[in-house]
């Protein structure tokens, strides 16, 4: 019996590349593909795949979202489906949190898509996949105190939510239709209120305190 896989990415070319890699293995079958979180969940409800391969950042909605929030949702609602994440994110804290949220494996898009074969082989053997250059779950510090988040303005909160989800200041500026200077200023202000001295400390605080779930 073939292993059923659903794939999700908002770029059709990436979807085609993923599908090509998967379908070279006769043990695997792509039963559906989606380009946003809502369509992905609908496919999973209908098809009941064994594995889902999803991009980390996809256009979402206020209910599902993407990133860590989506991984957590999939893990809670589809416990029998293994989750393999594709991402351009390289921040160790975010990658560690992906595993904590329920991912069975993380593959960086910046590498060779053939790494999918190695990752899928691990999942088929009921093992999690961990690339040697990725951090382990214990790379993330213990949960912090999120009470200081009440000091953030709505705009500062949105900026750090997107930043902690792996987007750059430039990405956030384009998404929110603000200047990069304005976004940078709001990020610095949020960091000061949260007591974070570096980008790494900011991301770790946001993820460890479960600030956006």
From TrEMBL:
The modification 4-aspartylphosphate is found at residue 55. One of its GO terms (biological process) is phosphorelay signal transduction system. Residues 145-210 form the HTH luxR-type domain. Gene3D superfamilies: 3.40.50.2300, Winged helix-like DNA-binding domain superfamily/Winged helix DNA-binding domain (1.10.10.10). One of its GO terms (molecular function) is DNA binding. It comes from the Bacteria. SUPFAM superfamilies: C-terminal effector domain of the bipartite response regulators, CheY-like. Keywords: DNA-binding, Phosphoprotein. Pfam families: GerE (PF00196), Response_reg (PF00072). Residues 4-124 form the Response regulatory domain. This is Two-component system capsular synthesis response regulator RcsB. It comes from Stenotrophomonas rhizophila.
